[in-house]
Task: structure prediction
Amino acid sequence: MRTHVKNWGTLGSLAALTFFARGAAAENPRFYNLEGFGEFLDGDPLSTAVTEEGTIALPPSARERFADAAASFSAATARGDDVIVAKADDGEVLLVDKAGKTRSLYKAEETVVTALLSTKRGLFVATSSPAKLYRVDDNGKASLVHAPDAAYIWGLVEGPDQTLLLATGEPGTVVQVDGKGTGKVLYKPDQEHLKSIHYDRELGIFVGGGERGVLYRAADNKSFKALYDSGHPEITGILTRGGYVYAAGVTGAETLASAPTEEKPSGKRGKDGPEVSSQLTQVAMDGSAEVVAGSSDEAIFALALDDKNRIVVATGATGRDDPKGRLYTIEPKGRLIAMIYQSPSRRITHLVSLSQGALAAIAADGGRVVQLSTALVAKGEFLTPTFDTGINSRFGALDLFARLPKGTSVTAAVRTGQTAKPDASWSEWSKELAAPGGARPSVPNGRYGQVRLTLKANGDVAPEVYRVRWAYLRQNLPPFVREIVALKKGLALLPVPNDEPKSKTVSLGEKSSDDMRRGDDDKHDNRGGRARQIERRGALTLRWVAEDPNGDDLVFDLSYRPVGQTAWLLMQEKLDDPFYTLAAAQLPDGHYEFRVRASDSPANPDGFELEDTRTSRAVVVDNTPPKVDAMEVKVAGKLATVRVVVADSVGPLTDAEMSLDGKPFRPIMPDDGVLDGPGESFSIRLADLTLGSHLLTVRVRDEVDNEGVGDASFVVR
Result:
């Protein structure tokens, strides 16, 4: 359950390049922080409560009266301290007493019980389909009270003047049944199903839609008008309090309710499950509305008031690895929400009021009946989510931030492992560490960790935990040089400074964003250096990609050697940027290998630094243009044959073309058919020449774009 505020918040071309090469900061100790309502809800409150104020506290005690893993309950009501439930599979109605003992009260012939209501006049049982309403006496004998013209009775409450009010489906109607069993349709909106109904002596009758989540009201118990549209497909629960009506608008309730217990529900799905969401809205009698709570992965199934007049909300969940039904208390005036109970079942579908202000929660899955009392539990436990350090780590001091009234206590134990989910390979729980902590628990190194909190009360006084902080130091891993390459000759790289941002936009949503939390880790992430690419005559640029798992700053040494030699020559050391531009003329023509050594020494003490090296493939350094030898021209009539020999000191040649009499250059083919060597010969035939003088120009280029030109003049007579 989440709360929301009122408005639920000339050097040639230039190009910018990014290299993921440099860490942002040294690998310092980090902190796992857990605080705030949203983050605590991601944990496992085994027997604790989570309050909207962002604390882990002790909830009212919950006692499991009854549980049958094979059973599923479809309806519930209460008679004194006895809970009456209907089994979904065969229509049997059971009474569960305070001791958890059960006895059968009635078994409906229709097998599907959709609603139960215990009154002074007896137990009323609604069955489907078709819809029928029975009264069952203390001997289990049933008599038909009324059979509305509908397939289902979804809601059943006591109405004015000892009548019963029914909310039906197929079609959706509001039916009033008097003491003689005579039924009268009070309202029939344009909906096939009405899913919830509530009667208040002062405010009138309220009913909720089951296809469109519209809340209808009849102030005079006769004339219904639409009071509020929730925007959800259905309204699953209604109650009144302090002159307001509270309505639960839900999306995905039917999909969630129809899914088998052992399976994740099917249907329209979000990222991790079906599309399930809900809102609890406070509606005034003039139709003005205010959302007081909502959830993006829980459906509200029932509402009730506890002994402190707080609203109790029962939910079912999806979208988590282990979805569980929960109970929340809500105080709308102060916008105070507390998660007070988490069930082993995925759905808590009914809430019934017992004597002396107690409540019972009924979980449909696993046939579970749980009684909530007004007294706090004496002891409760909370498991934080497992957290991933990203790298095998050594764990340090654990700090507990808590309010500890006299006589109360908070302790914590931790465990570590190498798997994302705790299993037999994880360490045992450490010894308990008392709040406020500050000591280092004895646990082995690991990549993952988890904290278990234990809270103990002193009578009616209980402690509260509002923050957990656990230090860890990640193992220093060596950097990794992924590649080293040479850019095209004539391209240079210039460093671009990384400007620190002066401001940024952050999300103020339900959970604290990582960059706003104390001890956040985002300052340790890898940030890439940037460079600007320009054209520079004769430039030779080496660039590389290097990473550090710890996000450490790196420095680089660049060395070279001619291919075939063994000794490396240092060209430049302690480079901050993952590139280096030199003038190609600094090296004689030939083939060279370049080696980059990356070190995380700026971020680690002497003796603890680590490094990695990588060698490039052979890089051609060629500063000498190809040479075009004297061209031999033979003229016969209007035909000229030209033989050209071209040689490059390093090679290979990559382009050859000719121009006759100043016309555009055209490619020419070498005699061997492939332009691929440092030396090539060409035989050029020029036919149909005009009489007079002619000029032939031949241009060749090598692999690094060095250009050689030759020409020959001849006369055709």
In short: Helices lie at 37-41, 253-258.
